[in-house]
Design goal:
mainly alpha, 8 helices
Length: about 200
Amino acid sequence: MGTQEAGQRDGLGPTEAAKEERRREDLEGGFYDLDFAAHRCRRYHEKLTVFYGAWRNAFRVVTVLAGSSAFFVVVAEFQSLAVFITAFVGLWAILDIVWMPDKKHDLHNELCKRFIGLAAKIERAPRTEEALRELRAERLLIEQNEPPCKRLVDIEARNDELRARNFPPEMLAPLTSWQRTAGRYGSNWGLVRLEKWKAEQPRHS
């Protein structure tokens, strides 16, 4: 029987030692939760950095190839084909401007670096309530610059972090391959099923 339980059974309430033990456990739990959140966010932004980086490179390659093809087609006097290629390049450029994969890549890359920095500070920080408050405040300051969350990507990042910490497989959200792909485009397809799965799971410490 723990000290706190013994104190409660004799009607005197928890002892000072039990209170201190509980406070220390809450503090460690707070640091653990914050560390998990920082690494989950780092994984989330890392995934989107790679995603938008691939699209940014694709836009650049296609633009260069289409522009070069249009030049040679014009020189060869294939006017109808030149008009088609020129229109394609124009539409591709508009899509690039509207979707802005380069800017989104840079934003998520910067946020990934900031969460890595936060995770490093958590590792080095003394386990005190003041340090925990400061780190939580820093996390909020980082999050104020985040774009709207892509829920399925966030769940995938959570799964990756749980797996890295050797949690049992049954704690991983059952994402499908389609959800992992569509989530990067902002889809929330199947989220209701995941919410139902979460509600059916037992509480874990």
